[in-house]
Specification:
It contains 7 helices and 6 strands; from the N terminus they run ααβααβαββααββ. It has 186 residues and is of the alpha+beta class. It has a 4-stranded mixed beta sheet with strand order 2-1-3-4, sandwiched between helices. It has a two-stranded antiparallel ribbon with strand order 5-6. α5 packs across α7.
Length: 186
């Protein structure tokens, strides 16, 4: 579902994935709300080696893709086209204890508030490192079975991200006035 008008080499490299990628924006959030599904936001870029490895290993796998399509609203973002989205969710990943980088796979509420994060995850489970399929299964179960936990985590991450980006960190500079719910930069 990557639009035919897409020009991003990164988005176009995922065009034939069985994952039904959507574009970032209010339509994806509205669809997530209507279907009561979390959003799987995957951030990457054309020159990212691990982004392409993950695409081959997980997003091109028919079983993994079917699970993603059934349980999430998958959204693919090229960090070079949307540095605002990348900046905010990299900050959220850091707050959640993740080193950041690409690919960044972050699970969001309907409002775009993050509650779980993962980077590159291999196709196979490894000792102490689950596969992406397991991360997706566990995250879908968390959303379905413990919504209060996702909402609590999301509220804490949202407050921390807004505090991070909205405070005046250097003398004389105005804060960015980030509103994570609608991803506005004023």
């Amino acid at each position: 579902m990557i639009p035919n008008s897409a020009t991003s080499p990164y988005l176009l490299s995922h065009k034939d994935n069985p994952v039904q990628w959507r574009s970032w924006g209010p339509d994806a959030r509205a669809e997530a709300k209507a279907q009561d599904k979390p959003i799987l936001l995957s951030l990457g870029y054309a020159g990212c080696h691990w982004c392409h490895v993950m695409a081959r290993e997980s997003f091109a796998d028919p079983e993994v893709a079917a699970f993603i399509n059934e349980n999430f609203i998958p959204v693919l973002v090229d960090r070079d086209e949307r540095p605002d989205v990348d900046m905010l969710y990299q900050g959220a990943a850091g707050i959640m204890g993740h080193a950041g980088g690409w690919p960044l796979n972050i699970f969001l509420s309907h409002e775009g508030v993050p509650f779980w994060v993962a980077g590159y995850q291999s196709k196979e489970d490894r000792p102490d490192i689950p596969s992406f399929a397991k991360v997706a299964r566990d995250t879908a179960a968390l959303w379905r079975d413990d919504r209060a936990r996702t909402e609590d985590t999301g509220a804490r991450v949202k407050a921390a991200v807004e505090n991070l980006y909205n405070r005046d960190m250097t003398q004389g500079q105005e804060p960015l006035n980030i509103d994570l719910s609608s991803l506005r930069v004023a």
